[in-house]
Every structure is written in C-alpha cells, then in structure tokens.
Amino acid sequence: MCGIIGYVGSNDSVPFLLQGLQKLEYRGYDSAGVAICTDNGLNVIKKKGRLENLVQEIECLNLPKSNLGIGHTRWATHGSPGDENSHPQLSDSKNIAVVHNGIIENYIVLKEFLIKKGKKFTSDTDTEVIAQLIDYMYNGNIFSSVINAVNKLEGSFALGIICRSDPGKIIAVKKDSPLIIGCGENENYIASDIPAVLSKTNRVYRLKECEIAVITQESIKLYDFEGSGLDFSFETVDLDSSCAEKNGYEHFMLKEIMEQPDVIKKTVFPRIKENQVVFENFDLPKEYFEKLKKIYIVACGSAYHVGCSGKYVIEKLTGIPVEVDLASEFRYRSPIVDNNTLVITISQSGETADTLAALREAKKYNAKVLSIVNVAGSPIANESDYVFYTQAGPEIAVATTKAYSAQLCLIYLLALYLSKILAKIDEQGYINYLSDIILIPEKIKEIFEGIKNIRSLAQDFFRISDAFFIGRNLDYAACMEGSLKLKEISYVHSESYAAGELKHGTISLIEDNTLVIAVATQSSLIDKIVSNIREVKARGAKVIAITTHANFYKISEVSDHVIPIPKLSDIFMASLSVIPLQLFSYCLALLRECDIDKPRNLAKSVTVE
Ligand code: G6P
Description:
This protein is an alpha/beta fold. It has 19 helices and 27 strands. It is globular, with a radius of gyration of 25 Å. The protein starts with a strand and ends in an 18-residue tail after the last helix. Bound molecules: 6-O-phosphono-alpha-D-glucopyranose. The site of 6-O-phosphono-alpha-D-glucopyranose has 15 residues, from helix 9.
C-alpha cells in the first residue's frame, strides 16, 4: 500500500522520482506527489488520480533543478483520495516533508497534542502528524529530531523525510513496511521496492525492522531507533529493469499470464534432483513430521485460494489434516495451534499485514512457520522459520497470476516431499506425480494455443452483470480463483460455489442467460458436475465448461461452450484449469475497457489490516 521513492545526488531528482513512481504505482494509485528541495524551500506538487496527472502538472510548471526529492503514490487510508490528503505531507512551518507507507495507530492522540501546541493541520492523514511531530521536535539536526519523533509513533511506517533547513540528505525509516536503499554513482536512492531503482543500480540494501538511514550524495549511514550506528552491506540483485516492463504486451497481466510456464520451471526444476524433491534449508527431522497433528495454511486473496487447493493435495498425499484460513480471521480467533502444528503462510509480496500478523500469532503458540513467498527479504520471509521462494520475478499487475501458479506448484512439491518422508506413497506413485509436475509448463503452453476460442467467448459474454463459477473439490478451489479474477479486473459481480451447494440457495439467482462457468476436471466427479450443469441449464443459464479433452463429449452434451484443456493427475488440475479462467477474465475486462493492471480501489500490496 503506497509507494515511496527518494533521490539525493548530483542530478535533477524529478525525472528519477517520476520513473520510480511509475514502477511503484502497483502499490496504490489514488494520487501521486513529489517534494523537492530548492533554494526557495520545499516545493510540493501533488495530484489526485493516476501518476500521469502529476506528470502533466509537472510538465506545465517550470520547476527549478533540485538534487534532493521524495515522491509517493498513494492508496488512501486516512482521508479521501484528494490533493490535500496526498503525500508528501508538509509540516506547517514548511520545513519538513514526509512520505509514508503504513498506518500511525496513535495519530489522534498525537494530533490533539500537536494542535494544543499550536500546530495547524490541513489534511485528514495520519502522515501529516509525522511531519508536524518532527517539526515540533526539530532541534536543528533532522536526524536526531526524526529519532525522537519515531520513538513516539505506534503502528507501521516506512518513511522518507527531507528538511529545508538541513538539506542534502534523506532520512529513511523502516518499521513493518518495506523500504530499500539503492546505491548509485554520485547519487543514492530510497524506494519501497527494488524495481523502482533498477534503471540506476542493482546494489541495494533492504532496511531491517526499526532501522534509520541518513542518505546523502556521498554516503549512507545506518542506525537503530536509539541512534546507535549499525554495520550493513549492499547486495547485488540479479534483476534488470526490463523485468518490470511490459515488453510489448498491452498489459502486465497478459505478460504475466504468458510468463507462467517459465516461472513454474524456475520455481520447480531446481528443486527436483535425481527424481527427488529437495528443499534447501528445510531441515525439520522426520520425527517432527511424524508427530504433526495438523497443517494450517494461512493467507489472503489468491494466496488463500492456493491454500484451498493445497488442502486437497496435501491431505490426499500425506493423510495430515489441513485447515485453511484467511489471515485476517486467523489472527483474531485464538486458533488451535501448538508445536505439533505446521503453519504455512503464503504471500506473493511477503508484506501483507494480515498474513504477517497471522504468522506472528502462530509463533506465539510455538508452531513452526514455513512461508511461500515471492519477494526476498520481505517481512514474512524474514520472520518465518523456513522460506520457500517462488521464482515469479516482479509481479506488477494487481491481480496475481504467475505468483499464484508458482505458489501452487510449491505446495505440490511440499505435499510430495511429505508423502515420501511419511512413507505414504510408493516409489512409482512418487515418480509419476513428479513427472506430472514437470509437465505442467508444457501443458499450460498448450492451453495458450486456444486463446482465440476464449477471446470469442469473452466477446459473447462481455456485457454480463453476474457470473457464477461452479466446481467440486479441487475444481471448486480453482473456481474461487477464477471468480476473484473476474470481479477484480472486470467489475462483473461473480461468485464461486461448490457445485453441490448451489441448490441450497444460490440457484435461486439463476435465470435466463445467467452465465455459469463450470470447472469439471476431477475424473471421479464428472457425473456429479454434469448433473449440476443440467440443473442450471434447466433454469436458463448459459454454461461455459472447462474440462479435459477426455471428458469433452460428455460435458459438451450439457454445456453451451466447452474449453478443453490437457490432462494431468487430478490433484494438479488446478494449475491448468486456472489458465483459461485467467484468460477469460482478461479478455472480458479488455472488452469492457477496464483498467486491467490497476483495478479501481485495489492495490497489490496490502500493508494495512
Ligand atoms: C492483494 C492482491 C492479490 C493478492 C492478495 C494477497 O489483494 O491484489 O492478488 O492475492 O493481496 O497478497 P500477497 O502479497 O500476500 O500474496
């Protein structure tokens, strides 16, 4: 939620700030702004709406060159998304400018205190409190004033701070929200995420919890919240700036859908050695797994849907009961967890606030936490006992696709790994499943060949206002994801239902021409879903079914349209059935002229509760 960028160096800061904000816009796009330090003081330019509004505004202004600046792209939490609530926020003396990602929980108390001390507020934001507090505590040295102020703040905050009367430096602060420092030639940077600095450098430092950095053109110094100096070193990241470009695709979402075969290969293949699943740095002994009473999978959004599929796969292969919970629920419901429970958190960003809080909750009960994460060095990765990284690369479209697919494959590998340790599978079964996992990338490519058919179905249905997704067991889990994709990016109301449950209520919503998408890949349940399709057809529904080539005729007898997909073992079919669901949502949203990569009201990285 919210993206931060900052520049200090020998060049003009504004071009860098704007290109960095463009890379961070996935974090929120309600408004954007920059503050630059010039001889005339701090200049703040901010605009409601997309970054392009800010770019246009800046083009019309004849801004003086400035070697120091900070910028922000916002997902509104405190106050409406208007200009006045946009960041950077200035103190009333106009001496301090702040950009912030996170939430200040005690801002009301601090605001009341500062108002009593004569500070005049102009916004509804919690961030303005930070600027005013630093200003109130200002003692001629911005660094020590920031230290004093942050020790009074409660909540989560990544901050970029500049000061008119102590120029030439950015103060960067991190607590519970991500922030990195980039080290350049004669210039240095801060950003919420690495792709924002990659056009300049791949030498970065990811700030750790409760660290403060003082960044000038020539130097970067690191401190804790007491002001004691800390040692650190830069890492060289193996990414180039093209990884966050569309590379000829109309949207990041389509590019990321198409990247799935490669991403799965990168995630899966290095973990298969001599026909065995191998996880580096996962050294829990056999006895631990033998005593395991339960596995909890905890996540949000699409990552939660991975957990819903994972439950079927892990239970089938290991016999261990798996409970799947939304992180926002788990964290507040005193879950029954102990040291015989393995808690798996799944998160693309590694910074989702609810998932992070759920992880901390699990650790209170001495459970081991294994996390499946895409972003290295993210808070969830840092705080977990074990981490399996997906190799999805930066995912920019707000609606996840490639990270989801990579997470799912890691769950398969984990399930197989556990089944072997627990002797729940014979050698041939193990090899067969492993061979199937290896085939997933090629099978996905086969589905891509049918994109024309999917596009023409989207053409037939793009004016719908409702859609229902039905499936059983693993197909139901895939439906949840398909339904979420559709509503996220096309704004079509959609719901997913366990097909057998329809008749207990939802079937009353089916009328002439209601779109029902049926996922039918589970061999033992084909006849059951055929009956469910008949039930909705009898009430006037139009049915698009996704099924394997083998069941094509059976399903096409009862459906209006069929999207055939290749076959794998039933337990891995969600990896294939989700592809046409992603593509259908994409094509439909395109025809509805939606802002596919940045759907309204959403943000990719959700660092608030
Ligand atoms: C947001 C994104 C979803 C994502 C969810 C969880 O809602 O739009 O695509 O599934 O957050 O995010 P995480 O980073 O924890 O996977």
